[in-house]
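User: Need the bound-state model for adenosine-5'-diphosphate:
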Amino acid sequence: MSTPRSVKAEPVRSGTDRPPLKILFIAAECAPFIKVGGLADVVGSLPLALKELGHDVRVIMPRYRPIDGKHFGLKRVDRFIEVPAGTDTRTTEIVESTFSGVPTYFVWDERFFGRDRVYGEPDEVMAFTFFSRAAIEFIHTLDWTPDVIHAHDWHTGCALAQLALRERRDPKLKSIATVFTIHNLLYQGLSGDALWQFAGFTDRPRRISGEPPGRVNWLARGIAHADVVNTVSPTYAAEILTPEMGNGLDGLLSQRRGQVSGILNGLDYAEWNPATDTRLAATYTAATLKRRSINKRAVQDQLGLKRKPRTPLIGLVTRLYDQKGLDLIVAAADRLFERDVQLVVLGSGDEKYHTALAELKARYPGRVGLEHNFNERLARLIYGGSDLFLMPSHFEPCGLGQLIAMRYGSVPVVRATGGLADTVIDAGRAPNRGTGFVFKPATAVGLLGALDRALAAYQEPDRWTAIQRRGLAADFSWQVSAQQYVALYQAAMKAHRK
Ligand code: ADP
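Assistant: Bound-state model below.
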């Protein structure tokens, strides 16, 4: 691929000329333990790639109720920490697992994480503030000090504020460099400023750009206090510096422009492999793409569609929120169904999209299949059985759906934004290199234009197979990106020493 994979990350020095790094990931979700979206994929797979490069990586995350302790071998090791929470101090247990080959620590506190879902509880900002505090307290109890803390998204902004503003005199903590990765600028962790007291700050710290008076903004704090900041694709890194896409934080990000870079997410190619995926109805390779029809039929059966082997099946596996461009699909739907197509949607989210999709299903019986759960098996079946994979996102920091789709031979139709623009090559514009179909205007007409080009290509089997095969052959594994993260960690350590 000629696509740029990063901006501004320092050149990688390979080999053993630098000692292995000790890196602690702090994150709200991590596959396979629990997953809501792409954040879990990244936190579950980047540590493995870094480990392959010889680094010592560990992860700390909350232990939510649905995490299956037995299945994942969670161990109680008699480790308890005292976590200040407002005027209170809570005794909290840390449990451990090495299920994924990476030591993973879980903050187990019934009050804050004895909940069934990761996000969306009314007190979630307080819960993740507590988690951030716990992560810092936890480091005190370890006989291992990270060189770098790699913190992810707003849920961990308080940990970086804590380190930068309070703990610098602590000999155990003062040498730790920090990297903050923004996976989605939309979610910022906003709260009233009573939270400062809960977080253990006696005075409200100095105001920063993007944090209005009387408010706490943990994403802004993460950006302000980290040694270096990055996001998950080069294009999104550039987009978030603009007022149109900066979500109120473009000013703050621009102040730190020199420390903001973009590194494309990788995909765990062992985890996502159509040749070995036991959750498919039929496995296949680039040489046996015809076997995908077995998966297509399974999707059609499972979601109540007519069995039509030759009708293009359009798949979506996504959270159903405005970001993902569902409005464009709904607006285009009636014109779309003038074509011979079927549509399957797996995902849940905003009620208005559940309703709109249910109406479509009623209007086009046998042509629309819906499931509003989190369903890993069905997701894989859709990647392995759909012909086209639709991602008309208004913005997309990186997007993993299109990477998985290419890996599984479902041709992506995407809007040219963020990581989608960096990873999918338009087959019309680059006939010998194209891996999908790309459109720019965020309109139903723009979407239909790209879909029509894709549907025309579908009618030319040789051309279609060539596009699929190029998708399968594209390399978005972690290898390159993990090396770029190592360079970023080294840059953070250098910045921190200064
Ligand atoms: P985001 O992180 O914004 O949700 P990404 O495309 O980066 O979007 O990652 C989404 C990930 O979550 C992909 O691995 C996708 O397969 C998965 N996913 C999304 N919704 C579901 C669902 N309902 N069931 C199973 N997997 C899902």
